[in-house]
Design a protein that fits this description.
The chain is built from twelve helices and twelve strands. The protein has two domains: about 90 residues, Winged helix-like DNA-binding domain superfamily/Winged helix DNA-binding domain (Arc Repressor Mutant, subunit A, Orthogonal Bundle), CATH 1.10.10.10; about 150 residues, no CATH class. Helix 2 crosses helix 3. The chain is an alpha+beta fold.
């Protein structure tokens, strides 16, 4: 890119961010949670059609990313560089980004099934930990697909998961799946499904008979905290108490 093209690119991005409604949209996405165009329209105080036009422009300039989950379409910041640029501008403007507040019932919010893998607060925490630890590595194929590092392979093999067999399946091995309650990714694909089967088989989580909710057991709290080296939220304690008090509602199975 020559100097002239660079200047044009900077001016286009600056013009996009300068529009007040787009600024509100971008700042609302700084917390890392994805949102629908309807939600962003409310945040920006514009009509749904106007919000869609703004999002199309932001997507064209690679400032936001579109996530399609079934019939739902969510938007998030394109990458960390966009967030960093916005943070720098907010420091100058002395503004604070709004926070995201989930509205999902507590039991489903903490842990539940999403097709054949795990979702909810716990699943997002595990996904983030696996990335931070370097166990999951973003694939060169893109499209939010993952591979495993050597330490990642050893970790999952240590859980009794046959990584080589999973890699040979026709379905995607590991990928990010946008969590509809947290609006952040959790682990999907055959690896995500195998992880769910493993934690249920080991009785770290129990699965409800009448809902998609997953309940954390005492053993599960101890093992997950130790093996993944994460601090579980206070909600996990409540979830554990509910699982103990309502054992008749839960069933331990070998499959999701």
């Amino acid at each position: 890119m020559n100097v002239e093209q660079h200047d044009i690119g900077v001016s286009q991005v600056a013009a996009a961010i300068a529009e007040p409604a787009r600024t509100k949209i971008l700042c609302s996405l700084m917390d890392g949670h994805a949102r629908t165009s309807t939600e962003l329209a409310v945040i920006a105080d514009v009509s749904a059609s106007t919000a869609s036009a703004h999002l199309a422009k932001l997507k064209e300039l690679a400032l936001v990313r579109l996530h399609v989950q079934g019939r739902h379409r969510y938007y998030s910041l394109a990458d960390q560089r966009v967030a960093q640029a916005l943070e720098a501008l907010m420091v100058i403007g002395q503004n604070a980004a709004p926070t995201f507040t989930p509205r999902t019932p507590d039991r489903l919010q903490f842990a539940r099934t999403c097709y054949d893998h795990m979702a909810g607060t716990l699943a997002v925490l595990l996904h983030d930990r696996m990335l931070d630890a370097g166990w999951l590595v973003l694939s060169e194929q893109g499209d939010q697909q993952y591979g495993l590092s050597e330490t990642g392979e050893r970790f999952f093999e240590g859980l009794g998961i046959d990584v080589s067999t999973l890699s040979s399946l026709r379905r995607r091995f590991a990928c990010s799946c946008l969590d509809w309650s947290m609006r952040r990714p959790h682990l999907g694909g055959s690896l995500g499904a195998a992880l769910l089967q493993t934690v249920i088989k080991r009785k770290w989580l129990t699965q409800d008979l009448d809902s998609r909710a997953l309940a954390l057991t005492a053993t599960g709290r101890k093992e997950i905290t130790a093996r993944f080296a994460i601090e579980l939220p206070v909600l996990a304690k409540v979830n554990l108490q509910e699982a103990t008090a309502s054992g008749r509602r839960s069933v331990v199975t070998s499959s999701p």
